[in-house]
Amino acid sequence: MIETEAESRREWMLQQFNFEGFKLQRIKKYKFWKDDNHAIELTTKMIERRVVYSKQNPVKALIVDLAEDYVYSSARDYSGRTGLVQISFLS
């Protein structure tokens, strides 16, 4: 995929990945991730808090009065309106 995917910054990105991979002997050529990124377990409640938080960002930035007024927010769809981004409802 790395050899065939069209990307305007391809050469620069390959240089960066190669540089990171060069630092470790176990890496053969490219390294795509950072070592300090540690996975954490998210509970349903934690995910819900993050979703609510992200939907409130346009409100806190004073772009809109209500989260569902932001055209790029799924909050529109959950309020019965249609947003610009097509979403799939999860049950």
TrEMBL record:
GO terms for biological process: DNA transposition. One of its GO terms (molecular function) is DNA binding. It comes from the Bacteria. InterPro entries: Transposase_17_sf. This is Transposase. It comes from Marivirga sericea. The lineage of its organism: Bacteria, Pseudomonadati, Bacteroidota, Cytophagia, Cytophagales.
